[in-house]
Amino acid sequence: MDAFQFFTKVDQTLLLGLRAKTIEELLNGIRTVQDSSIYFHTHHFLQQHHFLSPEPPNDFAYWVTEVLGDDILGEQLWSVDTVQFNSIADLRARFISILENALAESPRRIEAPRGQEFYFMAARTFVLPTGYSARDLSEFAEHLNKVSVNSIYFHMFDAKLRLKTGENDFSRWFRDLRKTALADAIKRMDPYSYTLDGLRQRISDSVKRYGTR
């Protein structure tokens, strides 16, 4: 069985040169920007603010609510459960559907004040080895407590959309070890319900609980 290799990531933020000052322009931008931009605006908050309480907003909901003052539409965008999506395409389609339906029901004429437009951004990701690898659950638990939260983020969040199976790197490796109960427990875990340090602890607790099954 191959050892589990812990990786980490570094993101370089990119400004795409596309902005929106109305709901219509936000919709057009979401339709056309690259996948990495949709990912950036729905996931980066958690990684940057991992010490805060969970359930962060996505950038679309925040802008519509706080800048345009459209609380009803903002709540609809806020309610998108990111964890339920295994592909960026499906996530993008959900936002498009919400915005299209809102515009069909009632035209939005509010424009963002100058300087508060929505700026579409993306991230160029560099994946780096951490130097830690695990051949068994004991080594995994030991190294899990040493790697940075960026490594936790990479293997739990990035992996879910990278693999497009609903699996993450940890649960997939546990399954290869024939630790099915542990793999299922980690796969079922809602990572958005914890801070990244809290998520690390929850994974560690699961390894202790299910590791012998």
Q: What would you say about this model in short?
A:
The chain is of the alpha+beta class. It contains 10 helices and 2 strands. The chain folds into 2 domains: 12-122, no CATH class; 134-210, no CATH class.
Q: Can you put this structure into words, describing what you see?
A:
With 213 residues, the chain is α+β, with helices and mostly antiparallel strands. The protein has two domains: 12-122, no CATH class; 134-210, no CATH class. It has ten helices and two strands. Strands 1-2 form a two-stranded antiparallel sheet. The longest helix has 18 residues, at 88-105. The relative contact order is 0.19. The mean pLDDT is 89.
The radius of gyration computed from the alpha-carbon positions, rounded to a whole number of angstroms, is 19 Å
Instruction: Summarize the main sheet.
Output: 2 strands, antiparallel
The first-to-last residue Cα distance is 18 Å
SSE-based structural type: alpha+beta
